[in-house]
Each structure stands twice: as structure tokens, then as C-alpha cells.
Amino acid sequence: MTYDPNNIFARILRGEIPNKTAYEDDYVLAFHDINPQTPTHVLVIPKGPYVSFADFSAKASDAEILGFFRAVGKVAKDLGADESGYRVLANHGRDAHQEVPHFHVHIFAGVNLGRMIKPTDR
Ligand code: AMP
Question: What domains can be seen in the chain, in order of their start residue?
Fold first, then answer.
């Protein structure tokens, strides 16, 4: 799958669509999800043009991968979720219902998240 430079997160990165920023550095932007599923629901995205987890893990540079995962941990900590706990989730492709074709992880926190996930029929 080729990267669509007009996907909504690319437009957020270019400043064309507003966002509620939680954190930003050279490698990532973290912002609050527009439709939060938990009291705290933040998305972390790399600044580079990667479609999904598969694309990012295969093609991003070591520095981008390091910068990204360090930032995810920092954002979760800064949100105050280290002690109570949080869940990091990345959806890749159809079965995971990935909606936005720019790699992102969700950080869910602020509530008891239950155990793991509940698969459904396709
Ligand atoms: P996914 O299904 O993993 O692709 O999740 C995409 C997420 O992006 C969903 O949780 C949406 O609520 C969220 N989202 C879509 N548009 C925006 C936006 N403009 N600002 C913040 N979050 C958004």
C-alpha cells in the first residue's frame, strides 16, 4: 500500500487540521483522539510517511524507531498513567479495522481496561 499524503494525520502534521497536542519532538506528534474510547486516549504518530505498523517496522530508520518508542513511553508517563496502567495498541489493516493509513499507536488509560481483546466475526 502506498502512502496517501492527504490522509487525515498527514494533514494534522502539516497543520492543516487542528489537534490537541500532548507532546511533540523531531520524531513524533502525540495528540488526543477526537473520539476518545477511555478517559485518556492519546494517539502517537511518527512524522515520517508510514502507512501502518508493518510499513514502519520494516522501513523506518533505527533513529525513527528509537525516537518513536521512547516517545510513546514518555507520553504515557507524562499522562500520569505509569502507576495505574495503560494499554498501547496499533491497528494494522482490515482485520484490525485500521481507519487512518498513517501509522499510529493508541494509548488508553484512566479506567480499568479489562483483559486483552474480544474478537468478533468478520
Ligand atoms: P485506527 O482505527 O487505529 O486507524 O484509529 C484511528 C483513530 O483516529 C480513531 O480512534 C479516531 O477517533 C481518530 N481520529 C480520526 N480523526 C481524528 C482527528 N482529526 N483528530 C484526532 N483523532 C482522530
Answer: 8-109 (3.30.428.10)
